[in-house]
Backbone:
């Protein structure tokens, strides 16, 4: 932690790498937005690629012109910005990241065209019926928590907010003590810390306290249903169940359950729905979130298959799953696959930095180093318990596309 | 960093130094372009879906269990006259992984019920693809550029449906025979202690058959035309604009043209002229890029701009894009842009070596395009030495606004008649 202002720093040594990656993660995402101001976190992320209010400061353009691999992403719990370049550029990368933490020029002339770009991005997602259904389901699944809208925000909100809204959001959340900087590469810890101190150390620690997220989602008491009417050839059924937060054993147990039940050509649901021609595909999404979120089961129906049929089969299979334990050999195989996937995702400075940043966003970077041990220790009983506790009618939101 | 190549009959093995020796990444491509009648993309994709579902001694469940137990990630994809297997595995399971892959390919069989399931699923996916404006724009663009018979010519969705419908298990057997008689390219990022294991694996696919060289024949260049198709339920119009080229990756002008097009529409970044104007200044699209595609060591391909606009911004967006194109040809790139992009190229080249995955992707692409590390080095040197005049000459020589072919898909009928 930087004494001067509370910025947290994680340095990962990657021997032999020709490139270094910086990834700064701010503890603010779309879940922190207020009603009527959805999409602000993402819009602000775009504005960090605009000029600074002091023309003498280096900007991201400087790094772009050096050929940096760069971008940013916003999600429910966090906003992260990254650069990858050959190692000698590290001091410059840190200068740019430090400069835009407090010096972005938030002005209408920059904001107006960028808003159109974001609306174009929003249209890109929204015109995909499957994506639009996902938004609808999320909205229905949450009544109070900020997870109840998509990160990009509602179109009406994006069209309406003004530069002052962005300024206020920036001034509230973009401070060193609400950020963690990850540096991954063949770098020395001492030199990196000195460079971080030189660049970020002068940012004055604010007296204000970052507002903590307060909403706790009320317990769901019964299934919810939504449908999207669209002119589309797609026929999608989705069942989104309330799921535990990342970093818990039950999250890992549900990850294993999803793998066994859905993900592979010999999974329970694949055999019950795809092999029988009711569906063209099935998938499971479980996300690393700070607070409890969703476990999404998605089914792409074949033409002519009624939604009721796949729903009946899905819940019958879930019920069966709740009464049977996974065999030791299947459990071992699934764990081996998930372990490998985790290891494969640690390839190169870019992946390592973003992976650790993701763990930071949900609360604990050390979990990056512990997750493999935790995964190995999950039992078949825990998997079964997680299914019984979470894949229930009471906690589900069902979504369908009504083709017109 | 080193790469090394071993040449066997109809097989080239490329080893690449890893950044992390604990993870092995492999790409194995079988080039089927020697087939006289060609194989359609959808046939290859269908065939790829079936590979790994049965072998002479194992059923689907056994194969998947073996992959899982050994923590192997395996993806088999078909298209563009080739089949590619991409495998990732830990170093300790590398030998087991190769044995499984070998069995999947050499002893591939097909179960009738699995074949029927895959056929029905593929037909359903093609039905769903009627919504995929980007795919439709790409298909129509390739059809406008390349005549039937050229491997880059795409079938329409309706033709793909007809192809899949007439497939039988006999096609699987024929495709397997063609695959095993094809030309193979194997790349792996791995520790030197595993090179011998890899070479042994490669020998199983090497064969002495004499195959014709990949055709470099250039068919008639198409005239300028616009193709647009209405896709329901979409709010954006997906767009491709470009034309065929007459140069290959080994042509004298290739580095200058590729470099000039990067300045115009750098892919994936924000630095190209199109991104800085059409997106950043005018706010007309989320992304707009330009590049050379489908061009190999001996075969010319095409260049294109690809983007999307909302229906209401379509004409404004196209006008802005065409204006930038006209400015590019009229005024050319500047000395400052050249200096900036030279540094960009140099650093991007280094970043391509940042992970095992990036190394594999880059060097395997070189291998399958008929290029090598020496070409990559020479290309970098040529870029560093390019003059502004060389870049502008290449742009003016090879890009011709009068030959532009455009393809749009989305809510196009709402917006008027023509595209360009």
Residues:
């Amino acid at each position: 932690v930087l004494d001067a202002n509370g910025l947290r720093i994680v340095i990962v040594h990657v021997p032999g790498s020709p490139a270094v990656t910086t990834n700064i993660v701010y503890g603010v995402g779309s879940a922190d937005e207020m009603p009527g101001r959805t999409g602000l976190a993402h819009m602000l992320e775009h504005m960090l690629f605009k000029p600074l209010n002091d023309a003498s400061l280096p900007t991201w353009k400087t790094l772009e012109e050096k050929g940096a691999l760069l971008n940013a992403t916003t999600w429910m719990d966090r906003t992260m910005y990254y650069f990858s370049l050959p190692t000698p550029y590290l001091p410059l990368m840190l200068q740019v990241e430090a400069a835009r933490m407090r010096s972005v020029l938030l002005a209408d002339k920059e904001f107006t065209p960028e808003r159109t770009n974001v609306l174009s991005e929003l249209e890109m997602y929204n015109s995909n019926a499957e994506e639009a259904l996902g938004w609808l389901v999320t909205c229905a699944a949450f009544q109070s928590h900020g997870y109840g809208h998509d990160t990009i925000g509602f179109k009406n909100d994006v069209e309406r907010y003004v530069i002052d809204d962005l300024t206020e959001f920036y001034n509230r959340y973009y401070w060193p003590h609400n950020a963690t900087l990850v540096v991954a590469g063949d770098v020395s810890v001492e030199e990196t810390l000195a460079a971080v101190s030189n660049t970020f150390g002068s940012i004055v620690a604010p007296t204000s306290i970052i507002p903590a997220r307060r909403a706790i989602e009320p317990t769901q008491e019964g299934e919810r249903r939504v449908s999207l009417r669209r002119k589309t050839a797609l026929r999608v059924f989705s069942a989104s169940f309330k799921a535990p937060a990342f970093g818990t054993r039950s999250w890992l147990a549900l990850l294993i359950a999803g793998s066994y039940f859905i993900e592979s050509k010999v999974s329970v649901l694949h055999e019950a729905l795809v092999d029988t021609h009711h569906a063209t595909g099935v998938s499971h999404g479980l996300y690393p979130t700070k607070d409890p979120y969703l476990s999404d089961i998605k089914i792409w129906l074949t033409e002519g298959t009624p939604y009721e049929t796949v729903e009946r089969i899905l819940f019958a299979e879930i019920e069966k799953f709740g009464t049977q334990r996974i065999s030791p050999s299947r459990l071992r195989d699934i764990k081996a696959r998930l372990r490998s996937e985790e290891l494969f995702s640690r390839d190169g400075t870019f992946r390592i930095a973003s992976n650790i940043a993701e763990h930071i966003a949900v609360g604990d970077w050390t979990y990056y180093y512990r997750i493999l041990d935790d995964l190995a220790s999950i039992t078949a009983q825990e998997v079964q318990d997680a299914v019984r506790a979470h894949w229930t009618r009471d906690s589900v939101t069902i979504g369908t596309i009504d083709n017109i | 960093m080193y790469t090394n190549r071993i040449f066997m009959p109809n097989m080239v093995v490329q080893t690449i130094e890893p950044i992390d020796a604990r993870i092995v990444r492999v790409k194995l491509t079988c080039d089927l372009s020697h087939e006289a009648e060609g194989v359609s993309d959808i046939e290859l994709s269908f065939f790829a879906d079936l590979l790994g579902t049965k072998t002479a001694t194992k059923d689907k469940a056994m194969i998947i269990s073996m992959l899982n137990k050994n923590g192997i990630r395996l993806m088999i994809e078909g298209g563009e006259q080739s089949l590619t297997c991409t495998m990732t595995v830990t170093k300790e399971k590398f030998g087991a992984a190769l044995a499984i892959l070998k069995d999947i390919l050499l002893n591939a069989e097909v179960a009738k019920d699995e074949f029927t399931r895959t056929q029905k699923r593929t037909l359903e996916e093609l039905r769903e693809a009627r919504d995929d404006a980007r795919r439709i724009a790409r298909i129509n663009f390739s059809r406008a550029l390349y005549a039937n018979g050229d491997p880059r010519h795409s079938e329409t969705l309706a033709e793909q449906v007809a192809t899949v419908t007439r497939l039988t298990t006999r096609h699987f057997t024929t495709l397997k025979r063609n695959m095993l008689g094809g030309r193979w390219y194997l790349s792996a990022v791995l520790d030197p202690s595993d090179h011998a294991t890899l070479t042994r694996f490669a020998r199983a696919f090497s064969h002495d058959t004499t195959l014709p060289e990949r055709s470099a024949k250039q068919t008639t260049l198409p005239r300028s035309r616009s193709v647009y198709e209405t896709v329901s339920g979409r709010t954006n119009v997906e767009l491709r604009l470009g034309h065929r080229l007459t140069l290959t990756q080994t042509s004298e002008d290739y580095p200058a043209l590729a470099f000039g097009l990067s300045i115009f529409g750098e892919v994936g970044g924000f630095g190209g002229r199109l991104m800085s104007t059409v997106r950043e200044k005018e706010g007309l699209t989320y992304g707009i890029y330009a590049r050379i595609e489908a061009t190999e060591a001996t075969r010319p391909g095409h260049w294109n701009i690809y983007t999307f606009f909302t229906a209401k911004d379509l004409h404004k967006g196209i006008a802005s894009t065409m204006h930038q194109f006209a400015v590019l040809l009229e005024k050319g790139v500047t000395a400052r842009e050249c200096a900036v992009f030279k540094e960009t190229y140099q650093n991007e080249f280094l970043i391509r070596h940042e992970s095992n995955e990036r190394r594999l992707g880059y060097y395997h692409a070189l291998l399958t395009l008929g290029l090598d590390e020496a070409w990559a080095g020479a290309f970098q040197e040529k870029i560093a030495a390019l003059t502004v005049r060389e870049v502008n000459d290449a742009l003016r020589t090879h890009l011709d606004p009068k030959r532009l072919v455009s393809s749009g898909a989305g809510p196009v009928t709402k917006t008027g008649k023509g595209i360009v």
